[in-house]
Amino acid sequence: MATNILIVEDDDIMGKVTQNYFVKKGYHVDLAIDGQKAMEMLQNNSYQLVVTDLNMPYVNGQQLIEAIKRNKYGKIKIIVMTTMGTEAMIAEIFALGADDFITKPFKASELLARAQKLVY
């Protein structure tokens, strides 16, 4: 059974590049353009991993992480990918319940390795 991943990224190019990379590696990947759309998709799909940006319209990454943890959507693992990599921000993200954090720009192979570690 393929691992289902939800990528939440408001930058269209970044989202599609990330999605295509995972698809080429055999994953089933959905793409949400913001946190609000992601929350709708979480209600109707089963994901093992959410890879989310932080700075997004409507519902930001922090709010999305809180919603995932509050609603207990299975045991979804969360990787945050963002340009904001301050020590305080990273600490806050882990305190909210994220499982990993990667700073943009990143190597696709590194993101894949982190994802595989969480879902296998």
UniProtKB/TrEMBL annotation:
SUPFAM superfamilies noted in UniProt: CheY-like
Cited Pfam families: Response_reg
Gene Ontology BP terms: phosphorelay signal transduction system
Alphabetic keyword roster: Phosphoprotein
Top-level taxon in the UniProt lineage: Bacteria
Record carries keyword Membrane: no
Domain Response regulatory, chain residue ranges per copy: 4-119
4-aspartylphosphate modified-residue sites: 53
SMART domains with a match to the protein in the record: REC
InterPro entries xrefs: Bact_response_regulator, CheY-like_superfamily, Sig_transdc_resp-reg_receiver
Protein name from the UniProt record: Response regulator
